[in-house]
Amino acid sequence: MIRVAVKHAVLFLCTGNSARSILAEALLNCMGAGAFTAYSAGSHPRGEVHPEALATLQQFGVPTEGLRSKSWDEFSAPGASPIDFVITVCDNAAREACPAWPGHPRTAHWGLDDPAALTGPPEAVANAFRNTYLLLQRRIQTVLMMPVAMAGVEGFHRHLQALGQGVYRTLGM
Fold first, then answer.
1. CB neighbour burial string for 124-152, b if at least 16 within 10 angstroms, e if fewer
2. What CA–CA distances, in Å, run from 79 to 40, 68, 70, 101, 105?
3. In 3-state terms, what secondary structure has residue 133?
4. Of 61, 97, 114, 170, which is most buried, counting CB atoms within 10 Å of its CB?
5. What is the mean pLDDT of the chain?
6. Three-class DSSP category at 121
7. Whole-prediction pTM value?
8. Mean pLDDT, residues 90-104 taken together
9. What Å distances lie between residue 71 and 36, 78, 114, CA to CA?
10. Domain coordinates in residue numbering, the chain
């Protein structure tokens, strides 16, 4: 008998959906191919992906095709595909009243500073995006080290929450 692995859907949320959630979506789709399908959205999307987010992903060899800034309404509309996990990556989105998601996903919060909000010399902005990318990369690597199948959905959910609650601070996450 052949066992087919379950592919879990993860939605990363922030307010503008132009930087942090886009980076997370691209990273998880690249690193977790086969185990996860990642999406991103915003409560008030900017309508375009920040150019430095795309430049950062390209710098690290992460595919950017198909990335776009979109509303969370796409994922809560009737007929939308079920989401297994919703991860907010900004404090504003975490405080907002989220729509009712199909599939009743488990939620976690990974608060990150917004590199798109930084103004200053281009090298400082680029550095902020790289730092955000590297932090998300470490968190996602940690996520991928604990397969859902081993921990069960609830154990995996606790793992996602712990990443945002400072449990892994000694690892810089």
1. ebbebbbebbebbbebbebbeeeebeeee
2. 18, 21, 17, 11, 15
3. helix
4. 114
5. 84
6. coil
7. 0.84
8. 67
9. 21, 14, 18
10. 8-166
- Which of 13, 83, 90, 112 is labelled catalytic? 90
30 noted as active-site residue: no
Q: Which phi and psi (to 5°) does residue 8 adopt?
A: -95, 140
Say whether 14 is catalytic. Answer: yes
Q: Which residue has the higher pLDDT, 114 or 173?
A: 114
Question: Among 31, 98, 146, 162, which one carries the catalytic annotation?
Answer: 98
More confidently predicted of 94 and 28: 28
Overall residue count recorded for the chain in this entry: 173
* C-beta of residue 80 within 8 angstroms of C-beta of residue 53: no
Q: Which CATH fold would you assign to the domain 8-166? A: Rossmann fold (3.40.50)
133 near 23, Cβ under 8 Å?
yes
Q: Give the C-alpha separation, 83 to 125, whole Å.
A: 32
